[in-house]
Backbone:
């Protein structure tokens, strides 16, 4: 009977984590370019997770399950196996602000952070106090790396990144970015935005603040299928109606597991206090 109680407790714990993920998705339904998280679960048998032991001959009173072994099926648990990010394209919303950029396709902007190169689809940009084009969090947006940058001589990585920042100081307040990511101040070509795509999105991890980290070497490729739209922003890919449905479902499953826990507790109480009196 106790094994059933732990099964219910495992289900309640998994649904509690599921509720946290859904609540975070709903909280970011209006966050530009937010990518929702999708939880995954797994069921496992207690005896399979443990190391296999040699069969033991019963030395005490023989019970029914000694003749019909369940192989752990009476101790089946569910746990949160993790959460993956859905990179589905969000809807595009027109803002007519020259500092708002949206990516149409699977690409990401490349930005420089204190922790190294990171990637984002959040295109609400601004000009920093030093004249550089930065994200809303203040991280410099980078230009595409020039071809043959390191050819012929070694290049300091920090200097290479610094040379790729976009400086709009003394270039006026108006600039145009075409669908290929090329930045023009009047007739002058300042450079081309660094927009990259990934071969394996499963190796791209969220880091908070709408930033993503690439955890696999040589995973980036040039953005051949992504276009830039100026004066447009990408909305979150969270569907509030879908998430509210998931929230209600997870809440009811959580309540069901709690009721099962209470039922097992009542049964164990009767077993301890009433059966012994017979």
Residues:
């Amino acid at each position: 009977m106790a094994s059933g109680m732990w099964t219910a407790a495992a289900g309640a714990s998994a649904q509690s984590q599921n509720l946290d993920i859904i609540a975070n998705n709903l909280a970011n339904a209006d966050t530009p370019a937010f990518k929702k998280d999708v939880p995954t679960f797994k069921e496992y048998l207690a005896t399979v997770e443990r190391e296999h032991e040699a069969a033991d001959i019963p030395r005490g009173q023989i019970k029914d399950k000694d003749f019909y072994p369940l192989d752990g099926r009476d101790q089946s648990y569910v746990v949160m196996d993790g959460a993956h990010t859905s990179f589905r394209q969000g809807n595009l919303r027109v803002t007519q602000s020259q500092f708002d950029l949206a990516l149409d396709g699977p690409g990401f902007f490349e930005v420089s952070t204190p922790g190294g190169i990171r990637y984002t689809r959040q295109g609400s940009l601004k000009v920093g106090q030093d004249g550089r084009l930065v994200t809303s969090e203040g991280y410099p947006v980078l230009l595409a790396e020039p071809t043959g940058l390191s050819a012929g001589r070694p290049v300091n990585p920090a200097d290479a990144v610094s040379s790729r920042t976009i400086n709009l100081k003394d270039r006026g307040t108006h600039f145009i970015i075409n669908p290929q990511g090329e930045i023009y101040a009047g007739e002058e070509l300042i450079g081309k935005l660094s927009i990259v795509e990934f071969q394996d999105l499963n190796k791209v991890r969220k880091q908070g603040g709408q930033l993503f980290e690439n955890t696999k070497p040589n995973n980036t490729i040039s953005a051949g299928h992504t276009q830039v739209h100026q004066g447009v922003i990408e909305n979150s890919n969270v569907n509030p109606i879908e998430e509210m449905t998931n929230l209600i479902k997870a809440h009811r499953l959580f309540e069901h597991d709690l009721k099962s826990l209470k039922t097992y507790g009542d049964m164990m109480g009767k077993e301890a206090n009433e059966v012994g009196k017979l």
In short: The radius of gyration is 28 Å. The longest strand covers residues 76-85.
